[in-house]
Write a structure and sequence with these properties.
Number of helices: 7
Order of helices and strands: HEEHEHEHEHEHEHEE
Largest sheet: 7 strands, mixed
CATH superfamily: Vaccinia Virus protein VP39
Helix content: 25-40%
Shape: globular
Number of domains: 1
Length: about 210
């Protein structure tokens, strides 16, 4: 039985995005991506969405954590943000700030947020991740990282001063792209600042809690 909080419209939008995930391609690199070319991109821009099972887990963690502010690195077409926002909607509190570089994805995500009637829970930010994070000034309870893997460590170090105690940080692709994010995985695993656990689900999720 589907949870009552989900409307048929929500599942319809999720299915539409899941189908789009397999077909969407931008050959080459848009100009805004020039600064973060990474091996995993393979000279094309795709949606690289999380699977539905990861989305369901994100919502569960939102319901458990009850965050006031969620930061997402990598909006893509908005699939993961929809799952996060659905948790906030059920809690009747909180806001997501989601950052994306590619303009076609930003416009797509905006459309889906509006269609799902979750746009009031989501603040879209367009720009380079490092530049946006360097100007950040809000306390953070929850982070979902699904951007260029080789820069996860850099992004975390920039934003680290703004993490509240017991903040949750979830880094996607911790198994299939573990070599690209080795510095990040080593840091959160060995640092006394975090308790971390590598969850073998879908592409691999490194879940860390700020002590």
């Amino acid at each position: 039985m589907k949870p009552k909080i989900f409307s048929e419209n929500f599942f319809k939008i999720c299915k539409e995005l899941e189908n789009l995930n397999s077909s969407f391609r931008i050959e080459g690199f848009p100009s805004e991506y020039e600064g973060i070319k990474a091996p995993e991109y393979n000279n094309e821009i795709r949606l690289w969405q999380i699977p539905r099972s990861t989305g369901q887990l994100l919502k569960l963690l939102v319901l458990l954590k009850r965050p006031n502010l969620i930061l997402e690195l990598g909006t893509s077409a908005g699939y993961s943000a929809l799952w996060l926002a659905s948790g906030l909607k059920e809690l009747k509190k909180g806001k997501i700030y989601t950052i994306e570089l590619a303009k076609p994805k930003i416009l797509m995500a905006r459309n889906y947020f509006n269609k799902a009637e979750l746009n009031s829970k989501i603040k879209q930010i367009e720009g380079d991740f490092s530049k946006v994070l360097s100007g950040w000034n809000k306390r953070i309870d929850f982070i979902f990282m699904d951007a260029d893997k080789s820069n996860y460590y850099k992004y975390l170090k920039i934003i680290e001063p703004w993490l509240n105690k017991d903040a949750i940080i979830i880094a996607d692709n911790a198994l299939d792209f573990k070599d690209l994010m080795k510095d990040y995985l080593d840091y959160v695993s060995k640092s006394k600042k975090y308790y971390s656990y590598l969850l073998n689900l879908d592409h691999g999720l490194m879940i860390s809690i700020k002590k």
